[in-house]
Amino acid sequence: MSTGELAASLRTWRDRTDPAEVGMAVNAPRRAPGLRREELALLAGISIDYVVRLEQGRTRTPSAQVCAALARALRLSDHEQAHLFRLAGHAADRGRISRRIPAGVRRIVDALHDHPVALLDVTWTLISWNPLYAALMGDPSGLSDRERNTLWKQFTEGHTHARVQHTPEERDVLVRSLVADLRGSTSRYPEDPDLAALIADLSATSAEFVALWDSGVVAGHQQSRKTVVHPDVGDVVIDCDTLTTAEDDLRLLVFTPAPGSDARSRLDLLAAVGTQAMGTVNT
Question: Which InterPro entries does the record associate with it (predicted)?
């Protein structure tokens, strides 16, 4: 990885980014154009110290999740984002999972601002989300990669999402669907170390996962209905549709109010209260 070129590119992209275009208040003249480091840190969901170290070339291994967060915050084009990933040592490989978020997908997420929306990679690890998702589900920015993985949460006694309620039957359908989808990913990404590590860790931790994995079922994940018990607005009944992007195989989760419920008014109330800016994982 070229830390010097990575550092220079980040500084250039930050300097050219119009603060107003990314939702930052501009109340007084600035000594320099573009975003301040603390603004980039806020938008990307990482610490300002980490931004400083990146721009000074003192950090050699920014993760793919951090690169995706920076690309989103800086509004990079698809070519620029691919360049960033290459500089950070995450070159595209047909056998490896992509965590690049194309500009077109970011535009779709922005357009769906009145719905909770989340992006996950092929391992079902949450990599990005919009403010309404954070307001509904709780802010995921302080969680580790494992804690943000849907399968890990379902099959272990670690971090669980107390806000989402499933009946035993609903959970059974959910985990079978997730495991079947994950198995299908192994043939598309046979060399990906993160996918292999997740399967190995789940196999060592959960007998339930092993039984489902050994069944050999391959299928795509299906639509599901969830009841989210929110501490401020009460029960929110939502349908979750999973859309898969063609080029990068990302999972775009779009939550819509269940027909016949009052979920729309509860989501509108959450949106009116206001939440954090579009989030991604912290370092």
Answer: Cro/C1-type_HTH, Lambda_DNA-bd_dom_sf, MLTR_LBD
Strand arrangement, sheet containing 234-244: 126-129, 117-120, 251-257, 234-244, 224-230, 164-165
List, by residue range, all CATH 1.10.260.40 domains of the chain: 3-87
Judge whether 264 and 28 are in contact, CB under 8 Å: no
> Residue type at 156?
T
DSSP string across 82-144: HHHHHHTT----TTS------HHHHHHHHHTTTS-EEEE-TT-BEEEE-HHHHHHH---TTS-
pTM value?
Answer: 0.74
Residue 219 DSSP symbol: -
Cα gap 97→46, rounded to integer Å: 22
φ, ψ for residue 239 (rounded to 5)? -100, 140
pLDDT in tens, 185-197: 988 888 888 899 9
Q: Which CATH architecture has domain 103-273?
A: 2-Layer Sandwich (3.30)
Name the CATH architecture for the domain at 3-87.
Orthogonal Bundle (1.10)
